[in-house]
Amino acid sequence: MKAFFENYLDFFITFCAAIVVGGQYYLENIVGLDPCNLCILQKYSAQAVFFIFLIKMIAPRFKFVFDILGLLTLSFGISASSRQVYLQNLSDLPSGGFCDTPFYILFGTNSFFDALSKVFQGSQKCAEESWSFMGLNIAEWSTVFFASMISLMLIRYLLIILKGHKYN
Taking the model in full, what pTM does it have? Predict the structure, then answer.
């Protein structure tokens, strides 16, 4: 188990992110699901995680910087997916919202943080559950992915700290 966390965790995270990105591509382009703005944020977060850890494997010189970027991206992804799960479980969702506004228009006409806050407000479209696998919908699977990757990274650092090793 120690060898996994020391040697193969970056490959495992990259591999899992590649599966998630491939699944997102399949659901969007083959099945024909139209993603809401929160789904698009989750998609970009998974793609960023894939590229961050792929570059980290190729150029391991800045491991710590890539880990910080990866944790920040995973944290952003889990916040978007958790917000969507929360919106899906609300019984009375306010009408309107900005999930119906196309993503590129929202970010093209507003400042970044203003558009981001509008996306996180959500709407009826963000609360739709159009696909499920093994009893979990897309947002719940995204939450599982982001939370498990964060947990694995934290276990790695906990083991490094407890063993007194230096992270090379």
Answer: 0.77
